[in-house]
Amino acid sequence: FKSGVDFITVYIAQPYRGSDLWNYYVDYGLIKTRGSQMTSTILNTEYDTKYFKAEELNELRAKLTNDFMKYKIIQYMNPFLFFREIFPKINTPPKLKFFLKIASRLFFRH
Predict the structure, then answer these.
(1) What is the per-residue DSSP string for the chain?
(2) pTM of the full predicted structure?
(3) Are 14 and 58 within 8 A, CB to CB?
(4) Is the pLDDT of residue 29 over 60?
(5) Are 1 and 71 in contact (CB under 8 A)?
(6) What is the pLDDT at residue 7?
(7) Do 102 and 109 meet the contact criterion of CB atoms below 8 Å apart?
(8) In terms of pLDDT, which residue wins out, 33 or 20?
(9) I need a labelling partner for 2 at 20 to 30 A (CA). Which of 17, 25, 45, 76 fits?
(10) How many whole angstroms separate alpha carbon 22 and alpha carbon 44?
(11) Using an 8 Å Cβ cutoff, are 60 and 51 in contact?
(12) What pLDDT, in 10s, does the model give residues 34-84?
């Protein structure tokens, strides 16, 4: 978390038809038929892997993203860091509104 970046996005690799990963999933029985394809995205998977269920991967991705953002927000509660790092990014009403929207989503999720 101490990388210095402001935001992260965690992607889940997806086995798209025709890719090497797709062939791996078929070869290891993770996709039952060559004709099937689920409606997964890079942010939300429906495919189980050899070691994780799809739900576990989705929860892990969400937890990593949320934990990172909570860490950054708590870090920026230090007034020095806030004025050096955050204030220049929220110094207009639209920027402040966006910041508050993101912060509220992170802290008030179910």
Answers:
(1) -TTS-S----------TTSHHHHHHHHTTSSS-TT------SSS-----SS--HHHHHHHHHHHHHHHHHHHHHHTTSHHHIIIIIGGGS-SHHHHHHHHHHHHHHHS--
(2) 0.69
(3) no
(4) yes
(5) yes
(6) 83
(7) no
(8) 20
(9) 45
(10) 16
(11) no
(12) 555 677 888 899 899 999 999 999 999 999 999 998 888 888 788 888 788
Torsion from C-alpha of 93, 98, 102, 108, nearest 10 degrees: 60
Name residue, tokens 């004025």.
83
Side chain identity, residue 10: V
Token pair in block for residue 89: 């990014």
Contacts for 2-5 with beta carbons within 8 Å, 24 or more apart? none
Residue 31 burial by Cβ neighbours in a 10 Å radius (0-12, 13-18, 19+): buried
The pLDDT of residue 92 is above 60: yes
